[in-house]
Amino acid sequence: MIFYIALPLTLLLYWLTRRLYRLKPLPFINPVLIPMFVIMVLLVISGASLAEYQAGSRPIQLLLEPAVVALAIPLYQQVGQIRARLKPILIGCTLSVLISVGLTFITCALVPTAPEIVSSIATRSITTPLAMSVSSSLGGVGAIAAAIVVLVGILGAVIGFPLLRLFGVTDPQAQGLAMGACSHAVGTAAAAERGTTQGAFSSLAMVVCGVLTAILAPVLFAFYHWISQLL
Length: 231
What we know:
2 domains
């Protein structure tokens, strides 16, 4: 049964959430967060198979890759602004990666954590495929990494812009970079709804931080492991 209603149900929930957000623009009314929880509850109550739901919603999954590629359009539209600010963009993204991975190691050092869990959490701020690949190469669990990435993305999409306003960050380019660096694709989708500039710079930060994490995370993890042995 779930196979036949998966696609229309997903589209309906997304449409209703977007419509509700236009009526009540509250941060937690998110087109990823609310449909996700509704579908999870439905699957648990009905006892339906997740695999059957995924098979029924396959057309949406097939559109995911073209949608990611389409993020290049706002990047192209803002290429002049990006070139003019390339140095601060690279510095900001590098600091974001160092802070994200570094805070993970510090937190896990204070709270004894298994190495495979540390590896799984360290890549939480980059997009899911990269996070799973990098965490697996570090000895982590891909499924845990994917779950953490999804949670971080949704959290960033919900509280990202309110936090930026709270700290007085009003520049659209800075907002976009912050969202893309901290909450990857889900945050980028939220940023794109705010404006073309936010969406473009969020897309850029998502890509740059993904590449930098793949390069820096193994080095930082080796350093963390060395320090742990010394202590």
